[in-house]
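Hi L.,

You mentioned the student needs an example of a multi-chain input paired with its predicted structure. This one should do, with 492 residues in total across all chains.
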Amino acid sequence: MKILYFAWLREKAGRAEETVDVPPGVATVGALIDWLKGQGEGHKAAFADPSLVRVAVNQEYVKLDHPVRRGDEVAFFPPVTGG
Amino acid sequence: MKILYFAWLREKAGRAEETVDVPPGVATVGALIDWLKGQGEGHKAAFADPSLVRVAVNQEYVKLDHPVRRGDEVAFFPPVTGG
Amino acid sequence: MIRVQREDFDIGAEIAALTAGKRAIGGVCTFVGLVREIAGDRAISAMTLEHYPAMTAKELERIEAEARTRWPLEATLIVHRYGRLEPGDRIVLVIAASAHREAAFEACHFLIDFLKTKAPFWKREEGSEGGTWVDARAADDTATRRWTRKTERPQRKRRHAAE
Amino acid sequence: MIRVQREDFDIGAEIAALTAGKRAIGGVCTFVGLVREIAGDRAISAMTLEHYPAMTAKELERIEAEARTRWPLEATLIVHRYGRLEPGDRIVLVIAASAHREAAFEACHFLIDFLKTKAPFWKREEGSEGGTWVDARAADDTATRRWTRKTERPQRKRRHAAE
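Structure written out for the whole complex:
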């Protein structure tokens, strides 16, 4: 599963992307976040306030209960500020 | 008093402008229109439907009861269609 | 700033000149009116715009000044052409620039709505069956009345709250 | 049409290219966003726009397609820049062209409102005290919610009646 981080989530996580092998029980975005938080201090800091985190699976906005599967591209980022 | 005509009022009146000496009783825009209607067939045609005529005195929109004086510039035209 | 001219205008150059050095501007809203080839169900080959020069300048300045009392604007421009124009030609340019996009949009919209019902221009369209003076549209009056301050619309409050 | 690019754009050239030969267009509404030198009460020396390329294109296309289902548009364009920008630089260009000005204004406004809350761009501002990621504005969410179809506003009906 490919994980992408943008803006300050990228800075806190200390990486722009990573490829992870998640345990079988991690089947939703919410579960993935909980699992990632256990992967290091940077990850923990990035997800410290989940209300500030937006998620896209395969480039589509999704909610925390959205399923994640092997092969998905999952992106985490703050609310957008373009325009 | 200088009278200006624009668009189809100009075409109907057969002139773009004229300088007129109005009798002393002609003291408002409404009275001026009534007087002009007596000045020829073109004028009569131009003012046939007063609801289609807009008036400006000295380049300001006015209503029929607005006073007119010697030296004024009085313009008659249809509702505007620019932009 | 207002200008009434026979010549065409360059939109990009106008925006650049108007906003140059004004670093408080965050949003620029621009409206350009073009000559359509169809009016109602009639094909148009050309159009002639007549106007009342002494009054046109006054009215455009009045409309612009009114917009600047209503919104916090950093810059405004109205350029209106007169004379003979063909389909695809530019007729009018309105630009409103502000720190915030809502003010830019509203002011630009206001300027063109008011211009359409207040500025003394008249269009004569030429088609295969000769020329016709364009009738004023009731929709333009309705559009202008939207901006009347006395009948404050719920929408206007909502928009300002969103700023 | 959408484009995401590092380079600047030429507003006049973009409008001309977009509208060329489309003689049904009567009104073109354009919005340009510029980098301000002040954000809140903080002086900005530069800004860096990061984005999520694969998703940005998809989102902008989705937003554009949605506008085209809502209004009768002859042409639309969104150009958004990324990378390092300075005060006065252009960030984003939105153009909506229609036979009628109301549709052009509304669609252009809708496009920028949606882009601001949906397109995956993030601004990092540089000032004298270092860089800061810009916070999303609640006002932008409010602006986007205005366009929600379920809560039809009286204003939207009134506007359409004016067309």
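You could point out the following to them. Helices of chain D lie at 11-19, 53-70, 101-118, 138-145, 154-162. Chain D has five helices and ten strands.

Best wishes,
N.
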